Amino acid sequence: MDATAQRRELRQRLAEQRRALSPAERIAAAQGLRRSLEQLPEYFTDARVAGYWASHGELPLNLVIPPLANRGQQFLLPVIGRGKHLRFAPWQSGDAVQPNRHGIPEPAAPGELLEPFQLDLVLVPLLGFDRRGHRLGHGGGYYDRSFAFLNEQVRPTEPLLVGIAYDFQELEIVNKEPWDVALDFVATNRELIDCSMSDPELETPA
Ligand SMILES: Nc1nc2c(c(=O)[nH]1)N(C=O)[C@@H](CNc1ccc(C(=O)N[C@@H](CCC(=O)O)C(=O)O)cc1)CN2
Ligand SMILES: Nc1ncnc2c1ncn2[C@@H]1O[C@H](COP(=O)(O)OP(=O)(O)OP(=O)(O)O)[C@@H](O)[C@H]1O
């Protein structure tokens, strides 16, 4: 099996595993995720926090989003733009949404669209991750394209990228492609992982 077929099979296995969770497991995970994010000071202080509308069995952010508004922080959802670039629209509970081309809700009539560099903290959806912060997504390359500018900067910087995942989405090694943008942290239902602290032994030789 070639590398592309392997990646496809891995994506399928991870997506199925996620979809097979019971409602009780999903609720428990959402509570665990909130506790993990509460370990991250930026979650309490950053002015502009982007997330996602959970679909395909993704870990729900519904316990993570409401406290932001209470603290006066802005929450934003991704909007698919031209050339597979993401922009981000402020969204509050009750604001109208409409499905994008993948069937995922996005703000229907955004008053304002922010560019990725204008964000402070981004909660990034993913299918698989490793402790170095390498990420396996749905294969659309949306996040890699939109945050490619971070690869020319010393990390961590703003925006801070925090992958959001169930613990079983952790992989030993996610092979890095040249265009991949690494995550600074991963927050799971069990822990907050600081990817800059990852064991250098895990680094693949150049
Ligand atoms: N909740 C959420 N919103 C998001 C993302 C995400 O991963 N999760 N994205 C992250 O990039 C962007 C949308 N990208 C997506 C890319 C592919 C698929 C998808 O369903 N792909 C199919 C296979 C490809 C296809 O035929 O479209 C699949 O995985 O079954 C969904 C979203 C922006 N919004
Ligand atoms: N900065 C970039 N410029 C041009 N093409 C890119 C860039 N980043 C990614 N791509 C393209 O997007 C495709 C998908 O990339 P990849 O498999 O890493 O997506 P992903 O991170 O899994 O998806 P997503 O970010 O949507 O969740 C790649 O085949 C690559 O050609």
Could you please describe the fold and organization of this structure?
This protein is α/β, with parallel strands linked by helices and 206 residues long. Helices cover 23% and strands 21% of the residues. 33% of the residues are buried. The two termini are 24 Å apart. Strand 4 and strand 5 form a beta hairpin. The structure holds the ligand Nc1nc2c(c(=O)[nH]1)N(C=O)[C@@H](CNc1ccc(C(=O)N[C@@H](CCC(=O)O)C(=O)O)cc1)CN2 and adenosine-5'-triphosphate (ATP). It comes from Rhodanobacter soli.
| Strand residue percentage | 15-25%
The total beta strand count reads 11
Instruction: State the distance separating the first and last CA atoms.
Output: 24 Å
Bound molecules: the ligand Nc1nc2c(c(=O)[nH]1)N(C=O)[C@@H](CNc1ccc(C(=O)N[C@@H](CCC(=O)O)C(=O)O)cc1)CN2, adenosine-5'-triphosphate
Q: What ranges have pLDDT less than 50 throughout 5 or more consecutive residues?
A: none
The first-level CATH class name: Alpha Beta
Number of helix segments? Answer: 5
What letter string, H or E per element, gives the SSE order?
HHHEHEEEEEEEHEEE
Principal-axes shape call: globular
CATH fold-level label? Rossmann fold
Structural class: alpha/beta
Oligomer: single chain
Mean pLDDT: 95
Q: How many structural domains are formed by the residues?
A: 1
Q: What's the helical proportion of residues?
A: 10-25%
Give me the side-by-side strand order of the main sheet: 3-2-1-6-9-10-11
Largest sheet: 7 strands, mixed
The CATH homologous superfamily is named NagB/RpiA/CoA transferase-like
